[in-house]
Amino acid sequence: MAVQIPYVREIEFEYGDCDELSPLIRRVVAHNPSAFTYMGTGTYIVGHGEVAVIDPGPLLDAHLDALLRALEGETVTHILITHTHSDHSPAAAPLKALTGAETYAYGPHGSGQKSGHEDVQVEEDGDMKFVPDVEIRHGDVIEGNGWTIECVYTPGHTSNHMCFALLEEKVLFTGDHVMGWSTSIVSPPDGNMEDYMASLRLLLERDDEVYWPTHGPAITDPKPFVRAFIEHREDRERQIVEQLKAGRTKIGDMVPIMYAAVDKRLYPAAARSVLAHMEHMVATGKVATDGKPSLASDYRLA
């Protein structure tokens, strides 16, 4: 029986409006809904008067205008980026130009890959123009007027993915690492399943009480949710073993069966997630293939 993830998908908002979510948190949602962004990118404003902005979002004039309206009369002191996909970081450049605030992130797209900067490979959706003013690392603390944010490095969805913990409210801004409406896509070469699983387990060691993802509503009971995500990924690997036992040796033949309940538009992304699992299973000796794992490879049980 498949793992049951307790998804939360109900979200109330109006595009262009700024909603107060807690004493220290506001959100403006960009009008970029899709099969990958749910209802759109949620840009968070932390604090009052002197504020931080988390994930300014895509390059949409209407969204930047709405964000500026929400920030009227305030000073942006920090622009924080969870990761550099095109629905998260591109609007950092015009926001920085208009406010003078510095940008904070782990690094440019692909910068967390173990191969190092010289051999970085990236997917099409990366924001290759973004370079942070300040590179941050796990455990770094960023302080503002009335708020304190701890950096929580969570590679996996991308190699440079960073969550941000608002210590005053025990809130974790989870970017795309953990979302309530859907599982996260882990797409090689920048996505890495071993890193993603380790990053999920890291969250179980923390005491955050609420997660605010960049897409969708809050997750108010995070520990069971994260455990379900881990079990879901472990179940996917069991499914891969079953597919191999049934004689299906190619990822393209496995996806329609493994993801029968998923929107077919997501099959290409699902195939890349299966590839991420295959890389992990080859590395751990559960599965074998000739040469480097790829979407076109033939796989077999080791």
Task: Describe, in plain words, how this protein is organized in 3D.
By secondary structure, the chain is an alpha/beta fold. It is 26% helix and 20% strand. The protein contains six helices and 14 strands. The protein has helices at 61-70, 92-99, 193-204, 222-245, 251-258, 267-283, and strands at residues 18-20, 25-29, 42-46, 50-54, 75-80, 102-105, 134-135, 141-144, 147-153, 162-166, 171-175, 210-213, 287-289, 299-301. The strands form three sheets. It has a seven-stranded mixed beta sheet with strand order 1-2-3-4-5-6-7, covered by helices on one side. Strands 8-9-10-11-12 form a five-stranded mixed beta sheet, with no helix packed on it. A two-stranded antiparallel sheet has the order 13-14. A hairpin with a 3-residue loop joins strand 3 (42-46) and strand 4 (50-54). The protein is elongated and about 65 Å long. The model has no long low-confidence stretch (mean pLDDT 95).
Q: What's the short version?
A:
With 302 residues, the chain is of the alpha/beta class. It has 6 helices and 14 strands.
Oligomeric state, counting identical vs distinct chains? single chain
Radius of gyration: 19 Å
Number of helices: 6
Give the % helix.
25-40%
User: Based on helices, strands and strand pairing, what is the structural class?
Assistant: alpha/beta
| SS elements, strand count | 14
Could you tell me the strand content as a percent range? 15-25%
Q: Unreliable runs, pLDDT <50, ≥5 residues?
A: none
Q: Mean of the pLDDT scores?
A: 95
Order of SSEs, N→C? Answer: EEEEHEHEEEEEEHEHHHEE
The rounded distance between the terminal residues' Cα atoms is 25 Å
Overall geometry comes to elongated
The biggest sheet, with number of strands, parallel, antiparallel or mixed sense and barrel status, is: 7 strands, mixed
Q: How do the strands of the widest beta sheet line up side by side?
A: 1-2-3-4-5-6-7
